[in-house]
Design brief:
The chain is mostly helical. It has helices at 5-19, 31-41, 45-67, 70-73, 79-106, 117-154, 162-196. The longest helix is centred in the middle third of the chain and has 38 residues, at 117-154.
Amino acid sequence: MQIPRFIVVCLLIIAPASLRMLAPEWNVVPIAAIALYCGAHFRNRGLAFSIPLLAMFLGDILLAVQTRNPSLYLFHATMPFVYGCYVFSVAMGIGLQRHWDRLPEGISSREAAPKTEAGRWHSALRARVLPITTLTIAGSILFFLVTNFGCWLMFHTYPKTWHGLLDCYLAGVPYFRGTLCGDLIGSAILFGGEQLLRHDPLAVPQSERF
């Protein structure tokens, strides 16, 4: 089953942007998961980088209107840190796409595709689930480290000392839990949903060629 590209792009931008308005304090919107998925799914690099950034920016606009506090969400001092993390997540997705592209060529005759169902599930776990999960968690950790460092660096909330930096990271731990949960759920829905729409749910996918 193939969903039209236009619908996919619109959903990837509008859905997370709208979701951010429901409970922004929970910080569970999976923008990093979307960035990873776009990097792994779209061969059009401009599209891959644009979708998560537009989703984030649209969400910022909606939150600025909703809260009537544009200075908090639009063009704030930590914006380069936040958006830079999503750019890096797209880059990780591109690396994942290239890894999948090399899989058919790198399988030797001894490691040919397994014929048993258990062997196929093991192969799918190694080729898809583990890399996706690892990169999703890495993206969440990167976002936590970089954005909290940006808050400590750009604002005067915490003293510019090692203790101040540590306090900033400790204050961000509750938000990190939301970020990690949102990204893991988002990756499961995006990558898992894509597999369920395929005739062979265990096959390693070929990225969209546009």
